[in-house]
Amino acid sequence: MSISDFLKKWWTTNSSTKSVKVEDLFASSSSSSINNKSHIDSDLNIVSYWEKPEDSEVINIVNDIFLHSMKSKASDIHIEPRDKSVNVRFRVDGNFVDYKTIDLSLRDSIVARIKIMSYLRIDEHRMPQDGKIAYKLFGWKSIDMRVSIIPTIYGEKCVIRLLKKDDKPPELKELGIMPYNMVRIKKHLQDNYWMILAVWPTGSWKSTTLFSLLSQFDPKENNISTLEDPVEYRIPGVNHTQINPAISFTFAKWLRSLLRQDPDIIMVWEIRDEETAKLAVEASITWHIVFSTIHTNSATHTIQRLVNLWVDPLLISSSLRMIISQRLARKLCIHCKIAYKPSDKIRDYIVGKVGRYMKDKVDLTLYKANESWCDKCNHKWYNWRVWLYEVLEMTDKLEVLMLQNASRIQLEIQAVWDGMIPIKEDWILKAVLGETSIEEILSVLGT
Ligand SMILES: [Zn+2]
Predict the structure, then answer these.
(1) Model confidence at 111, in pLDDT bands (50, 70, 90)?
(2) pLDDT of residue 355
(3) Quick one: average pLDDT of 116-128?
(4) SS3 of 428, please?
């Protein structure tokens, strides 16, 4: 395999993504020494429940699930009742990993235990409930958990999102953004006012890129404020605000209040409604820098989504500078991945897509999972993750198309014509560089 020397050098220098440091939480002690009581408040019912000896089995099961989810660097825990058992699985690097199966007789006790830890009603079984757990370890580091409980036909299902609030966001250069995209991103970060949107489907670690972008600005020189739900990263000097949907104070209301505080840079966690969309766009054209996110599947979908939220296309074209679409794929374990020569058909396809970046278009080597015994990756063959990006810059021609209410395909063709590298080409290059496998990417993006 041979690729542009520049690209290879850049990648080698910048792709050393750091592990999240959850394992540090366990560095000095075994799981049995976790301070189980550290998050208990003065509620006597909670304390008495906690200390009942007959409940210790349930307590141990729940603690074990939490412990292993953190050791596995999971982003979510799913505790799912089935007709004959309860399945526990983790989402790790965007993919589900089965953890264990628990006897059905323990189903209600486990849910009750989680409800108590997250201050939810244990006698409510028919309605969805949302809560939080601050899971403290050794009294100084902690992990926040967002709990969602929804009734299913087999009982209540729990999804617990793990938020590592002590983590700093990674540096932009650590995200594996290819030079052709990095150049565009850095160019727009130097504009005076604009809106940048990041988009992705569920489970793509959206906050990582967003906060890495935000970290590019100096809080001493700028009033940087965020509206988040939930707060995941903490950047020194940045005013992080946690939105609380329970008190009916929406993103739009918060944003209206925040704009009175003369912010320079605003990060609105998510544009979900018409009012927030309009306010965010108006803020960006009145000399604010606005970062936000919209839940869509691609960069071009995002333009249509904004228009569907009844934002004036003229305002969108004045405001929007860049849309970053991202996906997450698993990174091949560097200890057990194996090289192979692809078939002529696959090689020709790859060369057809990204040949302009490749020096040697004939002798192409790809990598795949060996699927053999490997202690380094715990026989998962993938270790950590690769971000795949598509960066759309607004251009004059795209603006004209948007004002003409063009279709998504027309927008896509124009964006590529204007220089956007489609996400599919970004992933092919990452496979060519040996970061991930063709099989993994196909499972993320489809054919
Ligand atoms: Zn391995």
Answers:
(1) very high
(2) 87
(3) 89
(4) helix
Report how far ligand 1's centroid is from the alpha carbon of 375 (Å).
6
Question: In the chain, where does the domain assigned CATH 3.40.50.300 lie?
Answer: 5-17+168-445
Query: What is the average pLDDT score of the chain?
Result: 80
Per the CB < 8 A criterion, the answer to whether 170 and 18 are in contact is: yes
pLDDT at 418 over 90: yes
Flag whether pLDDT at 232 surpasses 50.
yes
* Distance from Cα 377 to the centre of ligand 1, integer Å: 4
88 CA distance to ligand 1 centroid (A)? 24
268-285 burial by CB neighbour count: b if 16+ within 10 A, else e? bbbbbeebbbbbbbbbbb
Buried b / exposed e across 56-85, counting CB within 10 Å, b at 16+? Answer: eebbebbbebbbbbbebbbbbbbbbbeeeb
Residue 18 Cα, ligand 1 centroid: separation in angstroms?
A: 17
Contact 99, 117 (CB under 8 A): no
The CATH number assigned to the domain with range 21-163 reads: 3.30.450.90
Distance 166 CA to ligand 1 centre (A): 28
177 Cα: distance to centroid of ligand 1 (angstroms): 24
> How far does the centroid of ligand 1 lie from the alpha carbon of residue 97, in Å?
16
Residues of each domain in the chain carrying CATH 3.30.450.90: 21-163
The CATH architecture assigned to 5-17+168-445 reads 3-Layer(aba) Sandwich (3.40)
**What is the pairing mode between strands 129-137 and 141-152?**
antiparallel
Residue 165 token pair: 């609030």
User: pTM for the full model?
Assistant: 0.72
161-170, 400-409, 415-424: segment of lowest average pLDDT: 161-170
pLDDT of 140 higher than 50: no
* H helices present in 86-225, as ranges: 107-117, 179-189, 206-214
Cα 150 to middle of ligand 1, angstroms = 36
Cα-to-centroid distance, 333 and ligand 1 (Å): 5
The rounded Å distance from CA 367 to ligand 1 centre is: 13
